Every structure is written in structure tokens, then in C-alpha cells.
Amino acid sequence: xxxxxAVVVGASGALGSAVASRLRGEGLTVVAVARTAxxxxxxxxxxxxxxxxxxxxxxxxxxxxxxxxxVQAAGLPAAGPLESIxxxxxxxxxxxxxxxxxxxVRAVDGRLERGSRxxxxxxxxxxxPAPYACAAGVTNAALANLVRQLxxxxxxxxxxxxxxxxxxxxxxxxxxxSEQAAQRRGVPVDEVLAERAAESPLGRLITPGEVAWxxxxxxxxxxxxxxxxxxxxxxxxxxxxx
Length: 242
Hints:
The chain is α/β, with parallel strands linked by helices. The protein contains seven helices and seven strands; from the N terminus they run βαββαβαβαβαααβ.
């Protein structure tokens, strides 16, 4: 599926930038959405309703043609473990990721056509709860539910919805969170990073390039079969059968 437009929210982050680069390589015109200005960036805060009009304007400026894919890749702010997280932080996290996905879809609704993909980057903690990643777990579980609702609503139009759920990814954000955890525990940051990597039987973290590969794979017509489902990229970390 070459040609058309892709919209990537969170394009300034490690995962979002890798996804945007991969989609450009697939022949798509990418509208890169971020909160801060930069070359070729559509400036919008996906946590605010004003993002709908801002993204719609960015897509209009990108030219004619359908929106083949939208990707909600905005990262969550650090919120701390279950023992110390501010309760209101859970609501803010869900509003950013789940509310942001809904804003993104509404911004491009009129440009979606049969074969278009709605993609959200979540995480395996939504399925495999971990108290040290409290906000991520709660938010990604909510995101999975919203993706299923989008699948039910947009499926009759031939538009599919997907959740891509990586395990811990080797990004500056993870390293920053690991440094905070190391300080709280009084241990070296390398020890915390090693614990995250050890969650996988392969003993390593997933890379942004691997996440981008998985997202780009959903462009294939055969990805209709994954409509409404979660594509796990947890490197074998999950313990559940399903």
C-alpha cells in the first residue's frame, strides 16, 4: 500500500520518530505531530481538544488523498509506582492516551477510507500488571478497550483498528524512568535496566526500530485479519497463554 498520508502523534519521541521514518520509507506522506515546533512538525497538544482542528489543518496542508494510517504514539509522563503515585495522575494518563486517540481519529475521520488503519501504541503492562508501572498498566488497559470500540464502530467502513503493545523499549524515556527508580531504591541504574531486560526470556529490550517494523506491517492488506486485536511485542515476557 504505497501513497497516501500517515499521521503520527508523538513524532518527536523515540518510538514515534522511528515509526514516522519507517512510514516515510513505505512511501507515505507523514504528518508528524508534536507539542513543540520543529522542521515539518504539525504542532498540537493531543491532550487538548484543540488538537482536532490543528491536526485536521496539518493533514489538509499535506495534500489530497486518503489518510492510510494514524498512529497514537504519545508517551506518558513519569507518574511513579503504585505506592506513591498521585491518584489523579491515573486520570490524566488515560485522558492523554485514550482521549488523544479519539481526538486523532476525529481529526481525520473524513479522510479515512477502506483499508485505512487506526493504530495505538500501548504496552504489555496493560495485560500483565506491574505495580512499578501503575499508570502505564491502567492506561494501556483502557486503550485496549477503546481500540476494540473503534474496531466495532469503524469496521463496517473497512477501516481497521489495532493496538501495538511493546514490552519495555530501549528509549531515553525508559532510561530516565530507570534512573528515578534507581535513586528511590539506592541501586545503580544498570541494575534496574537489567531487571527490565530480564523480563524477557531473550534477556533484552525491544528497540524502536522493531516497534516501527510492526506498525508498518499493518499497512499490508492482510492485516485486516488483525482488526481489533493487540499485537504483542513483549519479547516473550508475558506469562499468560492468551
